[in-house]
Amino acid sequence: MTNNINPNELRDRAYKCAKAHGWHDTELSDEHFLWLVITELAEATNAHRCNKRAKTEDYNSRMNYYDTQNLEPDVYNYAFKNQYSFFIKDSFEDELADACIRLFDLAGVVNADLNDIDYVNSSTVDYSELTFTESMFKIVQVINNYYEPIDIGFILNEIFTFCNDRNIDILWYVERKMKYNELRPYKHDKLY
């Protein structure tokens, strides 16, 4: 999974989307962004406790149909948003993708170079013996033990390592959630 990624491209894409949608209209602290990552991990934990799993086979089946229909871009994007909302949104995989996207966005804010990270061999935790909740706690500990400057790649790697251990292709979910976010309205139609 992690061998074929270009983390700086994901960084740039996440930051560009967040900026275009108004999430950088005011300057915020690194701690603000890290807290949002932690809340996404908490949402992932809650989704896992409620057994909210992505229905990727159903999603892929539907999207494979739309891929063959030669639809206009607006129609295709409408179908994509509906299928994503119905089969993936709010699942624990979706929330883990949100945590990664928030880290990529923070990397864009601070212009962190993520290409020098060894995403395969730099984990600090063996997640195989931990429950889902314990694993999220360990990742939060990594976040809370950061030093200046923040090692965003190291935090991302912890999430990737957990996902690899659980056979979750997190980058597949990150890609789709980024597309979903790009299609959303300014500040997702929220007042804050």
How would you describe what is shown here?
The protein has helices at residues 7-20, 30-49, 56-67, 73-87, 92-110, 132-144, 152-165, 170-182. The chain is built from 8 helices and no strands. It folds into 2 domains: 2-20 and 31-53 and 91-186, no CATH class; 55-89, no CATH class. It is globular. With 192 residues, the protein is an all-alpha fold.
Tell me briefly what this model is.
The protein is mainly alpha-helical and 192 residues long. 62% of the residues lie in helices and 0% in strands. It has 2 domains: 2-20 and 31-53 and 91-186, no CATH class; 55-89, no CATH class.
Our measurement of the CA-to-CA distance between the termini, rounded to an integer number of angstroms, reads: 35 Å
- Please state the overall shape, judged from the principal axes of the Cα atoms: globular
Helical fraction: 55-70%
Low-confidence stretches: none
The number of distinct structural domains comes to: 2
Q: Biggest β-sheet, characterized?
A: none
Mind telling me the C-alpha Rg?
17 Å
Strand and helix layout:
Blueprint: H1 7-20, H2 30-49, H3 56-67, H4 73-87, H5 92-110, H6 132-144, H7 152-165, H8 170-182
What keyword list fits this structure?
mainly alpha, 0% strand, 2 domains, 192 residues, single chain, 8 helices
